[in-house]
Write a structure and sequence with these properties.
alpha+beta; binds magnesium ion; 2 domains; de novo design (two linked rop proteins); 483 residues; 7 strands; binds adenosine-5'-triphosphate; 5-stranded mixed beta sheet; Heat Shock Protein 90
């Protein structure tokens, strides 16, 4: 049942109950009023009859005109009370009729008495008649008094009955009204409070993002309708959210593709420039190297300036090689190479400063399938970065580990570490924190390692050091020669 209907029932019951109480009070007052009027009129009749009885006695004693006229006056007022009295009860009406008849009779009897007293000499028979008339008058008056007393009593009883009946009706009405309204109110509270709490909890869950939660109840009232409408709304919201998520995914995918496209374009442009610069620098470098060699021969000794020229040539050579490696997409060579020998060759290519201790823990028996020249460049770049990160000296530990189908080669230094803000950029081409750096070392490392189906990861702590870990597949197939 709807809450509105329940509230309407409550209102109807309240109005009906109040109406019953009001009508009961109205009719009770009316009946009590009537009973009181009857009582008062009957009481007047009793009083007047008593007085008439006294006046009769007075007249019979003295036969005075004053008492006679008093009697008639009193009788007139008594007659008025008798005729004015209205009675609905049939039994009481017959009592009243009797009183009215007696009233008529006493007037006749008194008139006869008055006539008999007005005669001079009374015969014996007339005196006897007077006695009879006096007795009749007294009996009739007595009869009237008891009749009127009966009417008084009946009026009192009726008043009492009316009061009791109206009390009963009002009490019953109040009990019925309280019971019905109370029960209905409890039902209303139950049908509002409990579902509202449930709805509130459900809405909170949905607000927290659980769009699968249902709050709908089968109840047919307004809250039931509201909860079902809420479920429909959540369902539409779910559809909208799902399509929005799809759209977001699509947008993200497109953005990634665009980024890759832009990066590819950028790499192509960088590659072109790198090839040009690399070629242009290679020949002058070769000439400088040749000139240094001749100078050394001519001087017959190696000076510190010559050493500096050679180290600069080596640095410039490294940069040119990096530029060319980055720009060229060479065809992939994968031959079996011993990892330990490869690392030794790479280390020989570098002049590791005296303050840097190199700890080589590379396993002797490990082989990988790679292009030895390219992989050497990978190792050289990582080791060079480590050495450059330890200007005040430190330890470089090289280790290998076999992990399933892969070999892990780790390069751990005790250098400066990588700042948090730079961490995500170190593999970007041309990102460098060095004044003389090109920022091509790590991008080449990553490119080569990934070409051999490998991965590179890095862990670093500022002030404590950095560890680069290269993961390469053990098998030839993964190495890529067959592809
Ligand atoms: N072992 C390391 N310790 C601290 N920082 C490092 C280390 N390796 C790389 N980096 C940081 O990553 C940056 C990029 O290195 P990357 O080798 O690509 O370029 P580079 O060394 O600056 O220049 P290039 O290698 O071209 O001469 C470096 O500039 C440096 O800031
Ligand atoms: Mg470098």
């Amino acid at each position: 049942m709807k809450i509105k209907t329940r509230l309407e029932i409550n209102a109807i019951f309240l109005v009906c109950g109040l109406l019953v109480i009001a009508l009961t009070l109205f009719f009770s007052f009316q009946q009590i009023n009537e009973a009181m009027q009857q009582y008062m009129a009957a009481d007047e009749i009793v009083q007047s009859t008593f007085e008439l009885n006294i006046i009769t006695g007075d007249y019979l004693l003295h036969q005075e005109k004053r008492a006679q006229s008093q009697w008639y006056l009193k009788h007139d007022s008594l007659s008025k009370y008798v005729t004015d009295l209205e009675i609905k009860d049939l039994e009481d009406q017959s009592v009243l009729d009797n009183i009215a008849q007696n009233n008529q009779d006493i007037e006749d009897i008194f008139s006869q008495l008055v006539t008999s007293y007005e005669g001079q000499e009374l015969s014996e028979g007339e005196t006897a008649l007077q006695g009879i008339l006096q007795t009749q008058l007294s009996v009739k008056l007595q009869d009237m008094v008891s009749g009127a007393s009966l009417l008084c009593k009946a009026a009192q009883e009726r008043e009492l009955t009316v009061i009791q009946t109206s009390n009963l009706i009002i009490t019953v009405s109040i009990i019925v009204l309280t019971a019905v309204m109370g029960a209905n109110s409890i039902l209303i509270i139950k049908s509002i409070a409990q579902p509202l709490t449930k709805l509130h909890e459900g809405v909170e869950k949905i607000t927290r993002g659980n769009l699968n939660h249902k709050v709908g109840s089968p109840v047919k009232d307004e809250i039931g309708q509201l909860s079902r409408a809420f479920d429909q709304m959540t369902a539409s919201l779910k559809i909208t959210t799902a399509s929005r998520d799809e759209l977001n995914k699509e947008i993200t995918k497109r953005k990634q593709t665009e980024k890759l496209l832009r990066e590819a374009e950028r790499f192509a442009a960088i590659g072109e420039t790198a090839t040009m610069v690399g070629h242009d620098l290679r020949n002058p470098l070769q000439a400088i190297r040749f000139a240094e060699y001749n100078l050394r021969k001519k001087l017959q000794k190696d000076t510190s300036q010559l050493k500096s020229i050679r180290s600069s040539i080596q640095y410039a050579d490294q940069a040119v090689n990096n530029l060319l490696d980055f720009s060229q997409d060479r065809s992939l060579i994968a031959v079996r190479v011993n990892l330990s020998s490869l690392m030794n060759e790479a280390l020989e290519m570098l002049q590791i400063p005296g303050n840097v201790k190199a700890v080589n823990k590379i396993g002797e028996q490990l082989d990988v399938y790679v292009d030895p020249n390219l992989m050497k460049r990978v190792f050289v770049n990582i080791v060079l970065n480590a050495v450059q990160a330890m200007p005040k000296g430190g330890t470089l530990t090289l280790k290998t580990r076999s992990v399933g189908k892969h070999i892990e080669i780790s390069f751990k230094d005790t250098g400066t570490g990588i700042a948090k803000k730079d961490f995500s950029k170190i593999f970007d081409p041309f990102f460098t924190t060095k004044s003389k750096g090109l920022g091509l070392g790590l991008p080449i490392v990553k490119k080569v390692v990934e070409r051999y189906e490998g991965t590179i990861s890095v862990e670093s702590q500022v002030g404590k050091g950095t560890t680069f870990t290269v993961r390469l597949p053990k098998s030839r197939e993964k190495g890529g020669e067959k592809r």
